[in-house]
Amino acid sequence: MAEALNSWFMYLICGGIIAFIAVVCVIFMVRAYRAGLELGMDPQVLKNTVTSSVSFSILPSIGILLGVIALSGSLGIPWPWLRLSVIGALHYEVQVAQGAAEQVGMHTLSMAEMTPESFSTICLLMSVCIMWGMILSIFFNKKYTERLGGSASGGKPGKTAGFGDVAMTAMFIGLVSAYLGSYIGGLVSGGTGIVPIITVLVSGAVMGVFIWLSEKKGLRAVDNFSVAGAMLAGMLAAVIVS
After folding, report:
1. What pLDDT digit, counting tens, does each position of 97-146 carry?
2. What residues contact 142, with CB distance under 8 A and at least 6 apart?
3. Phi/psi zone of residue 224: left (φ > 0), alpha (ψ -120 to 50 degrees), beta?
4. Which domain holds residue 40?
5. Is 37 in the same domain as 108?
6. Is 113 found in the same domain as 10?
7. Cα 151 to chain center, whole Å?
8. Does residue 39 fall inside a structural domain?
9. Model pTM?
10. Is the CB of residue 68 less than 8 Å from the CB of residue 77?
């Protein structure tokens, strides 16, 4: 199964989609640059913007690379590469993939238990569950942006989307609590050990340091490094404890 998941055919399909997205990004970047020139913006300002964007995109992308590495052991390299390069997020991909694996009868999300049927089901579920953000944006994004601060077509500024912020925060807290509960349950039952708990604590502590530096010390630039830094610290702690 490992050969099939990392076959040239999988690389061709996933690589072709990623290449298409990359071309679209380049087209939008060029058009945005030209539009800036037409609006009378200073070319040096535009160049500095491009340079700073590139420099501040490198380190956060390490988190994406770590996600690809983490999932490649169970789903191969091409599929996680596609998911995390285009629209996916690591916490979402792992959670949905694990849930789908359990529903098809797999004990763990691993290459050893993977079958063509289970892989197809996992990929389908990962794709279906995340596409609704794009679909709903087509119908409701304009109204949502008007609430955030008024539309470009002259709409009146509205209130901030307080409910959306609260709902997203509550959902994330619930997700983290569910993971912590499973880790504590595994520790009590003797199934997983203390490594997941240590990993969570170290990652949370490092993320807290980044938030403190950003909000209390005014170092907003560290926000770009917080996810990758917390992931690296958590992984290092897991290796040391293990």
Report:
1. 888 888 888 877 888 888 889 999 998 988 888 888 888 888 888 887 77
2. 151
3. alpha
4. 1-132
5. yes
6. yes
7. 28
8. yes
9. 0.64
10. yes
